[in-house]
Amino acid sequence: MAAVPGMYGNIKLIAGTSCPDLAQEISDYLTETCEIHIPLADRSILKFPNDNTYVRLNESVRGQDVYIIQTITRPVNDIFMELLITLDAVRRDSAGRITAVIPHMAYDRSDRKDQPRTPITARLVADLLQVAGADRYITIDLHAAQIQGFFSIPGDALTAYTYILKDYIAGLQIPDLMVVTVDLGFAKGGRDWARELDVPLAFVEKMRKDATSQTLSLIGDVRGRSVLLVDDEVDTAGSMVNAVELLDREGAKDILIAFTHPVFSPPALERLAELQDRVSQIVFTNTIPVPQGDLLPNMKVISVASMLGEVIYRAHVGKSVGKIFNE
Known about the structure:
Layout: E1 11-15, H1 20-34, E2 43-47, E3 53-57, E4 65-69, H2 76-92, E5 97-102, H3 121-132, E6 136-140, E7 155-158, H4 164-172, E8 177-181, H5 187-197, E9 201-209, E10 212-219, E11 226-230, E12 233-234, H6 238-249, E13 254-258, E14 261-262, H7 268-273, E15 279-285, E16 299-302, H8 305-317
Parallel strand pairs: 1-4, 4-5, 5-6, 6-7, 8-9, 8-11, 11-13, 12-14, 13-15, 15-16
Antiparallel strand pairs: 2-3, 9-10
């Protein structure tokens, strides 16, 4: 595809400090797709001795279609503040349009008041992004779909598990496959997985109490079947370990794990390492960078760069984004 001028000028990509490799992959994809060189914009980001974040654009973005790529990972509050400051810098340089590209949206589990006197932090995050200068947003696999309603600006809430991850799993051609969700909260995602792969579906039912979870039962029969255990993210991996143990007791033949966001709060990697004899593959995306040295032998990382790059291209030239998920 040749480059088509957008109504907001040329594409400008600005990488934050949280996912520079993913940002470069997106740049490479767009350069190939648009048939013009679209490098990452030159910028300076540093911390003052007083721990304040400083952002400076070293080239003009006036009148341009700017995409700021920053996944929200550890240290979450520093990374999010860096994104807000970058948005403000770009807005004050009179960009034509500003899109916050946030592969992993932090605080998206805080989407409602589930106890008295608690905040809805996901709504606060949406408000801050808009006040800082975002005209649009792009994100992947929000924990709760209703978070889209917290924004008064347009955006693309993408899904990786029925697009990129699904294609990889389908390519494995696993016989007697069944999709199992880690809990009932991911039931809709599990149905999407099962529909796309054209396989049966089962659910793990569990009860949460404080920061721990207790697996109760399996809704469905996995005996003698290969199982694809799915969720949107893995944080401490406690729920995933409980689910694998339950599937093992229920007679599952082979177990694979697939999810979008590798949050991997301690002791997640240690827990997943203990499952290597029982889990053949752990498949996830690079919405959050995982150091090469932390990857286990049975882990497979699928890049979201092509999906994000294609969405950025289509948003820039005014083409349908939804169409790429229906092709």
